[in-house]
Specification:
The structure is a homodimer of 161-residue chains.
Chain A lengths: L9 H13 L3 H6 L4 H10 L4 E2 L1 H8 L3 H13 L3 E5 L7 E5 L1 H25 L1 H17 L21
Antiparallel strand pairs in A: 1-3, 2-3
Helix pairs in contact in A: 6-7
Chain A binds a DNA duplex (30 and 30 nucleotides) through helix 5.
Chain lengths: 161, 161
DNA sequence: GTTGACTGACTAATATGTTAGTGATTGAAT
DNA sequence: ATTCAATCACTAACATATTAGTCAGTCAAC
């Protein structure tokens, strides 16, 4: 029996659209030996001089457990430094190194150029619409949204049919 | 030195907006013991009766190497069956089981309900705008987009500063 | 009938996502 | 001074993402 839901899969559309955008930037990023996440972090650090891990988590949308590994690798690569804060031994300060600063100064302009190319192709209106709609969705976050009532939990693992 | 790029990080905005949507569906999906990816696959199978792995990859935006593992686990859980095609031994047919059919019949309506709730909260216009803009971006895929020229590759791993 | 390009699923290795939980540290209330 | 909840980075365990490559099966050309 075929089951077709009334709504198209919206998160999946986001996934596809995001990939369609990202595929134009990925070659640039990997050309410099970085991963997407590492570039997000360097881009953020390029605007803030020093940041704490949890700030980077929020800004770059990377969960804390992933962040630990990413920062460790970036530290090994000489792209960042980590230093415990004097006043609060729980907290950590992350900074760029001269090496990553140089890297960003080369990579950044290429990213901007690619944006311009995409803007030409998509049309500036579409880019503008994108920013607007994204901001609206993100703003909607503030208004609490109800959740459907869930039925009692079954253990589907042990149901044969 | 602070470096601020001329364009906001658009793929990152997609990531955030997608997460803002998904967080309203995730609890429903995990309540039934599924992952996001598993649900995407079941939803697709619910509309197609039988699919080949590479079709599922395209439809659900999951890369082939991930698909192997996901399908293996779903087969173990009794959610799908895999069968080699008679005519072409390379190809495989994936189908739902009575168990997963029952699961989708319970889960599907809850997802639809949650969409309605979100539509109320976001406003129907925003949902409509979302579908429109996403489709535009995805449609833009067809027009080939140029790539910025990349400088000669350096090995940033071994540069000190 | 062999060859050779191609296809489709799969494997391998590494990085990240996701959920739950730990342990040290802090700060407010006792 | 002590207790207690909260905070923050981190660990653990598993699932998925990403890139590259393997391997058997197919199909067309020779």
């Amino acid at each position: 029996m075929l089951r077709k839901l009334a709504y198209r899969n919206l998160p999946q559309l986001f996934l596809k659209a995001r990939e369609e955008l990202l595929c134009h930037f990925r070659p640039i990023i990997t050309h410099f030996g970085l991963t997407e996440q590492q570039w997000r972090i360097l881009r953020a650090l390029g605007e803030h001089e020093e940041m704490e891990p949890r700030e980077i988590c929020e800004t770059c949308h990377i969960l804390s457990p992933s962040m630990t590994g990413v920062l460790s690798r970036m530290e090994e690569m000489g792209l960042i430094t980590r230093e415990r804060m004097a006043g609060d031994q729980r907290r950590v300060l992350v900074r760029m190194t001269p090496k990553s600063d140089k890297l960003v100064s080369e990579l950044g302009p290429l990213i901007v150029e690619q944006y311009k190319i995409i803007e030409q192709s998509f049309g500036p209106e579409l880019i503008q619409q994108l920013y607007e709609v994204m901001d609206k969705v993100i703003a909607a976050e503030r208004a609490p949204i109800a959740r459907v009532a869930l039925p009692p939990k079954k253990d589907w693992t042990n149901i044969t049919g």
